[in-house]
Write a structure and sequence with these properties.
121 residues; mainly beta; seven-stranded mixed β-sheet; four-stranded antiparallel β-sheet; globular
């Protein structure tokens, strides 16, 4: 079965950094584009970043220049390095396999439990 396990979330101060991890199993990871999503309180889940099979990266405008997505195919893991964190980055962060559609990047699998990131003084 497909399993996605996010980890690394924490309480951090504005301007701080955090690195999230997503360990995947049950998929051919090296042949799968991956992405990170987040859901803040009272808001819909939104796409944050994606990385293609070949390593091409894309970011939402709200995180561009601050976040970096990466993948380690040998470890079947996708990462999200978050720098210069802002209170508005507070959310539950999720990873998922992604595909490109006519409307944009879309998740293809089931959602895991996510990991909580809280940015506050």
């Amino acid at each position: 079965q497909v399993q996605l396990v996010e980890s690394g979330g924490a309480l951090v101060q504005p301007g701080g950094s955090l690195k999230l991890s997503c360990a995947a199993s049950g998929i051919i990871f090296s042949s799968t584009a991956m992405g990170w999503y987040r859901q803040a309180p009272g808001k819909q889940r939104e796409w944050v970043a994606s990385i293609s099979i070949s390593g091409i990266k894309n970011y939402a405008g709200s995180v561009k220049g601050r976040f970096t997505i990466s993948r380690d195919n040998a470890e079947n893991t996708v990462y999200l390095q978050m720098n210069s964190l802002k209170p508005e980055d507070t959310a539950v962060y999720y990873c998922n396999a992604v595909k490109y559609t006519a409307s944009g990047t879309a998740p293809t699998g089931s959602w895991g439990q996510g990991t909580q990131v809280t940015v506050s003084s």
